Amino acid sequence: MNSSYRLGTLAILSIVALRLAIGWHFFREGADKLVTGTFTSVGFMKVSKGPLTPLFHWFIWDEEGRARLDRDGTLAAWDQYREKVVAHYGFDQAQAAKAKEVQDFREQQLNWLFDENQADIDEYFKGLERRDKYRQEPGRMEVASLRGQVETIEKELDQKLNGWLTSIDLMWKGLETDLNALATPDQAGRGQLALGKPGRKLMDTVFIDQIIPTFDLIVGILLIFGLFTRITSLAGAGFLAMIVATQWPGAPGAIPAHYQIIEMFGCLVLAAVGAGQFAGLDYLVKCLLRRCCPPKTEKN
Q1: Cβ of 278: how many Cβ atoms within 10 Å?
Q2: First vs last Cα of the chain: how many Å apart?
Q3: Do 235 and 138 belong to one domain?
Q4: How many CB atoms lie under 10 A from the CB of residue 150?
Q5: Could you read off the pLDDT tens digit of each residue along the chain, which spans 300 residues?
Q6: Can you tell me the distance from the alpha carbon of 163 to that of 109, in angstroms, rounded to the nearest whole number?
Q7: Final residue of a domain: which of 166, 199, 232?
Q8: How far is residue 131's CA from residue 136's CA, in Å, rounded to a whole number?
Q9: Are residues 47 and 109 in the same domain?
Q10: Which helix (H) or strand (E) element contains residue 204?
Q11: Which bin fits 254, alpha (ψ -120 to 50), beta or left (φ > 0)?
Q12: Global pTM exceeds 0.90
């Protein structure tokens, strides 16, 4: 007997309501992220607690600023980018000279920042070494007061770093915008040439931030319409499990993730019962499959 016939009306209505509620939540999260365009996963990965903390920190693009605080590497990357822009648009001599002026201006800004803050930057890297040493001391992260010292050091380092990186990121973006703006309307038809970020990894937060908004939106739409509900619910549960893992239950300093845990198990319930068969497109898909591909009956 099909499991749907063993469920009462109230149970079916509850399953449909659960599917719509979770689907709407995913949809709104994805839509809001796409509309604002400011979503970043760096925050919840950076404050992760538990045994998977090193893994989540690995995903963070240029977490310690080593790539962007590399003056020589930055200047070399900018020089290569200017040459690519000139070749991409086919600039004439006047445009190429203007492109060099734009680069020189940004280089002056960068050099001034490093010259003014070099001593603090050197002290920052020494602070990273001290933080890493504390992290490796047995038992330090298990004692609240000692763990608090490490967290204080991390906050101070982040405050210093964020100030520099905010300015440096504006310089990178400004160089990209100004060089592309030199193209004539005909040249601009070739498409804008993006300036890549330094220190990228195959799977980092820059890539993840591009995927999550669309992922949330698709999961939400499929759950609302009840299409491919089992696999969609499992995907949603896996995503929520990743969020929960950033605040590992019981880990020292972890923030409770009760809401995410509840929604994760809600997704698992939807997957277990095949919630799309109730007032969802999965029911229509199932009917079409039965009509075009009827099950074979065994002959006695």
Answers
A1: 20
A2: 21
A3: no
A4: 17
A5: 444 457 889 999 999 999 999 999 999 999 999 999 999 999 889 999 999 999 999 999 999 999 999 999 999 999 999 999 999 999 999 999 999 999 999 999 999 999 999 999 999 999 999 888 887 776 665 666 666 777 788 889 999 999 999 999 999 999 999 999 999 999 999 999 999 999 999 899 999 999 999 999 999 999 999 999 999 999 999 999 999 999 999 988 899 999 999 999 999 999 999 999 999 999 999 888 888 877 666 554
A6: 15
A7: 199
A8: 9
A9: no
A10: none
A11: beta
A12: no
Q: How many angstroms separate the CA atoms of 23 and 31, rounded? A: 12
- In which element (H, E) is residue 249 found? none
If asked whether residues 46 and 155 sit together in one domain, one would say no
Confirm if 167 and 72 have CB atoms less than 8 A apart.
no
Q: Based on the fold, state whether residues 127 and 194 are members of the same structural domain.
A: yes
The torsion region of residue 250 among left (phi > 0), alpha (psi -120 to 50) and beta comes to left
How remote is the C-alpha of 133 from its chain's centroid? 29
Alpha carbons 243 and 41: distance in angstroms, whole number? 10
- Give me the helices (H) in the chain, please: 9-36, 42-46, 53-59, 71-89, 93-136, 144-180, 185-188, 205-225, 229-246, 258-273, 281-292
Q: Is 232 exposed, middle or buried (0-12, 13-18, 19+ CB in 10 A)?
A: buried
Count of domains forming the chain: 2
Considering only CA atoms, which of 244, 245, 51, 43 is closest in space to residue 142?
51
Token pair of 206, please?
């820059």
Q: Are residues 269 and 184 in the same domain?
A: no
Does some domain include residue 299? no
Please give the residue range of the domain that contains residue 144. Answer: 62-199
Q: Are residues 186 and 96 in the same domain?
A: yes
CB distance 41 to 212 below 8 Å:
yes
Cα–Cα distances (Å) from 275 to 270, 279, 283, in that order, read: 5, 8, 9
